[in-house]
Amino acid sequence: MSVHTQYNRNKENIGRLLVKCQDKPGIVAALSTFLYENEANILESSQFSSEEEDGMFYIRFEYYLDDLLMKRQQLENAFSKIAEKFEMEYTFTYAIKKKRSAIFVSKEIHCLQELLWEWQSGDLDTDIAVVVSNHEDGRALVESLGIPFYYIPANKDIREEVEQKQVALMREYEIDVLILARYMQILTPNFVEHFPNKIINIHHSFLPAFIGARPYERAYNRGVKLIGATSHYVTNDLDEGPIIEQDTERVDHRNNVPTLKKIGQQVERRVLARAVKWHLEDRVIVKDNRTIVFH
Amino acid sequence: MSVHTQYNRNKENIGRLLVKCQDKPGIVAALSTFLYENEANILESSQFSSEEEDGMFYIRFEYYLDDLLMKRQQLENAFSKIAEKFEMEYTFTYAIKKKRSAIFVSKEIHCLQELLWEWQSGDLDTDIAVVVSNHEDGRALVESLGIPFYYIPANKDIREEVEQKQVALMREYEIDVLILARYMQILTPNFVEHFPNKIINIHHSFLPAFIGARPYERAYNRGVKLIGATSHYVTNDLDEGPIIEQDTERVDHRNNVPTLKKIGQQVERRVLARAVKWHLEDRVIVKDNRTIVFH
Amino acid sequence: MSVHTQYNRNKENIGRLLVKCQDKPGIVAALSTFLYENEANILESSQFSSEEEDGMFYIRFEYYLDDLLMKRQQLENAFSKIAEKFEMEYTFTYAIKKKRSAIFVSKEIHCLQELLWEWQSGDLDTDIAVVVSNHEDGRALVESLGIPFYYIPANKDIREEVEQKQVALMREYEIDVLILARYMQILTPNFVEHFPNKIINIHHSFLPAFIGARPYERAYNRGVKLIGATSHYVTNDLDEGPIIEQDTERVDHRNNVPTLKKIGQQVERRVLARAVKWHLEDRVIVKDNRTIVFH
Amino acid sequence: MSVHTQYNRNKENIGRLLVKCQDKPGIVAALSTFLYENEANILESSQFSSEEEDGMFYIRFEYYLDDLLMKRQQLENAFSKIAEKFEMEYTFTYAIKKKRSAIFVSKEIHCLQELLWEWQSGDLDTDIAVVVSNHEDGRALVESLGIPFYYIPANKDIREEVEQKQVALMREYEIDVLILARYMQILTPNFVEHFPNKIINIHHSFLPAFIGARPYERAYNRGVKLIGATSHYVTNDLDEGPIIEQDTERVDHRNNVPTLKKIGQQVERRVLARAVKWHLEDRVIVKDNRTIVFH
């Protein structure tokens, strides 16, 4: 996995521009000339064109511009002309404006632990604004770090009421990204549509194998020789959303369900942490049900 | 993957004993005392007990015994008493008696090539007696090694007739193991029941994901971040037989179906070669729909 | 990596027997008959013979015996005859008697965190008796878990004095195993000889590459495409002791020294955790400068 | 490993441009505008700047331009002005002009086999013009594919004479890249300087571990838990040239030197094949003793 290099620069002056449009001659020239003329220095750029399929073009720039925050509005205004010409969809984001995240968790807190750890060591560039759980297991850890912890009991009979509380909380805390770190409740379409491509889940199998409940039991019964985990954006089709990252680990006949779970937890935590990191750094673009990840 | 060490010993005197029975105190003592008293020196032993599930005990011995071929009958006779006492299922095999194999292949011959290559370099301890194909692509390669190549055109309309020919051929060549090295025809239950746990297939996906046809296309459409391959024994449930080996390789958004296939072929060939090797060395025990692999 | 299965058994009645001797016919028979006659039921057994090199035989048994703690002395006494006959070196250990460990750490606490985490989740079967550091960074974490933390400043000028304090501490806490979780001080031969094959170190490179100081800087300069970590027993030859476990991770030209370190820390923590786990479960046998690991 | 996607385009019209210069604002804009104005459509672009170290900028373009071969000279001429302004080092290459390669091999031909195989299946975009060996082992295979095979016995006493013959042969066959596929002879500085960054070697260890002779024996003696292979450009420092690719595979105490070799051969062949493929596609840039690989 690659980790990138711009550590020393003044974060206030770092911006990102993501662009998606129909592929045409001259796009890179137009974009890079725009950045140059606006005195933005390109730190990193990645592009992809899906020419054989639908002819779409995708690019991500990370750039450095002195006094970026002052010039920001002017830059975005100037860009709108290029965007119009090429019919681009685009997003400007600013490194200084950290995304605000909420973590949802149930009884098993290993993924929560990993995220908090990576966050403490500076690898996850986010404000963890709130943790929500239908169990109390994570409270001590979360509160010890000064993060608010909300215990909201949940089950399918009170789903609507629970989700109303959760949506209200997400609004109160102005959440940009919602991380399901082994939150073992199904979310309704109504909830999901509040956060399109903003809910990241970790599923404890190598999707599309073992969609749904109890994947380790089913992996055991099928006698697989590798187990896996998958991090994906949540859509209304259970475990069918765009995949951000996957990984596997070798197992053998000596493993039973509890030991598969132990091994799987290691995979889950690293897969989720990578996916969240890439999302926070605006490295993931969703294209239908697939992702382009510029890591 | 481990490769084992007995290279120098006189192969004529190497035997293997596989045993399966209800777990009880004294089994290892009885078996190892039996081997000791019959002057068989244990070269390698591996055991497994599935105590929490069904209390079964599995063991594989590889041993060295001077004049094994002369003493073989006597050894097997003597063993029958122990086997009776513990109600054991068991198999004696002899390293000198190579299994005879048939390879079935269609248009894509990369798995065939890998098997022939490993066989030439001494890693697959088998007599490759015959290659059968519904295409002519492999003929030159196969015949250049002095192996008979049978072209038997196949499609679903003439399946019965084709399988009759194939079964006859397997009998004629006294085949012990039948390797489907990307043979793209479905075998009927009638064919399969002639060769229980003796047909090894390579499926070009990480089962149980993408069972059936066109797995690379479906992997592409699902946007997976790893692709895999699975080698398994063939049963009458398509792609549902006991898994012997699996592996995966990382891919990304830049891959299209042709490049997924290229990467996948590398995985297929190493997964199949390992599974065949382990089968030939009597390292695989089938337990319901799972395998115990003593590699 | 395999994790094994005996979770439910009464731990009081689980014992382990490790044996090393010249390979001869009849050893397995003698050992398994001994266990059987003493009513010990074998849960797991692994063996290895280095026949081609020096003809040594190694075996590890994990067994279950009702009232083991009461029968323990009698069992060991009875064994001494077999041991004498075959000139065996051997060790009896008892699952109920957890090894007592000390963790040494400096400024970077990621390996300490991983060990504490695995220990809390029940994966490291040890009493962590004390943590020693030449920095204060780990204190809050360690004390929050009720483990004594000793700050002992260290540098090469006061090495002798520091080591005297440390040895005294190890005695006071009756330490069985000493884990160097990125302790960045060199230990003297005098210190090391107090703890033969009982000090486990993590070195932040794929040994024997980059022995000594600043391995990530040197890996960067050499332009390697993978970085690694190595856990080994400490001997008086710096970074030359018997290797227990190693692993690697892919890097590329975009990585600089700080990002190599970040990636490397993930490798270090999992490599050390595995090595410590295997040591605690008596799965590691040292053979000259190599290890046999029955995992 | 990623394999890229442009399969269907008319190869005649595909070109590549590699550029290296001091990083300055406006480079990407200048280059992409140049390509756009010359009607070259960018298929793939990858860039890297080593800002923290020496402020160098590297970029690789793959582009499509109708009638490229006719416009080629004009394009290169036009570019010279930009190159001058930014003080660029640069290379134009053309997909239609395959590199001509020579393979050097000794007794062990597994790497040769892998290269020939990948070449036959269209994955190595080269003309294999000649194979040179100090043994006869590869002759039958090589000649069966219509490739000239030269047997040139070699040893250190006749090195100079041998190398003269080899250099003459390389000239006769107009060789662009020289692949040492386990050629077990040391090349003199005199030979090497004829082919700067054009000789690709496979070393059978994870460099810088086990530089020099007999790496598997030394890996065995050191008791490593992974073995590796390294492909690198040859310089006059033995096994010290810029690394293109490395990989490792897990081994354990059961492996002896012959089985380490078997496992290692699998690693060697895939590592060399990747490195050669990337070199042939102009994906590798040498920067001091390191490589930038745009795969």
Strand tally of chain A is 13
User: What overall geometry of chain A do the principal axes of the alpha carbons give?
Assistant: globular
Rounded mean pLDDT score of chain A:
93
Helix content range of the residues of chain A, please? 25-40%
Question: Order of strands across the biggest sheet of chain A?
Answer: 7-6-5-8-9-10-11
Distance between the termini of chain A: 8 Å
Name the assembly state.
Answer: homotetramer
Specify the biggest β-sheet of chain A.
7 strands, mixed
| SSE order of chain A, one letter for each helix or strand | EHEEHEEHEHEHEHEHEEHEE
DSSP summary: helix tally of chain A: 8
Low-confidence stretches of chain A: 1-7
- Indicate the radius of gyration of chain A in whole angstroms: 21 Å
Beta-strand proportion of chain A: 25-35%
- Class inferred from helices and paired strands of chain A: alpha/beta
Most extensive interface: pair and counts? A-B, 32 and 32 residues
Q: Overview of this structure, please?
A:
With 295 residues, the first copy, chain A, is of the alpha/beta class. Chain A is built from eight helices and 13 strands. A seven-stranded mixed β-sheet of chain A has the order 7-6-5-8-9-10-11. In chain A, strands 2-3-1-4 form a four-stranded antiparallel β-sheet, with helices on one face. In chain A, a hairpin with a 2-residue loop joins strand 12 and strand 13. In chain A, helix 7 crosses helix 8. The first copy, chain A, is globular, with a radius of gyration of 21 Å. At the B-C interface, helix 1 and strand 2 of B face helix 1 and strand 2 of C. Chains A, B, C, D: Pathway: Purine metabolism; IMP biosynthesis via de novo pathway; formate from 10-formyl-5,6,7,8-tetrahydrofolate: step 1/1. Chains A, B, C, D: InterPro entries: ACT-like_dom_sf, ACT_dom, Formyl-FH4-Hydrolase_C, Formyl_transf_N, Formyl_transf_N_sf, PurU, PurU_ACT. Chains A, B, C, D: Keywords: Hydrolase, One-carbon metabolism, Purine biosynthesis. Chains A, B, C, D: Its EC number is 3.5.1.10.
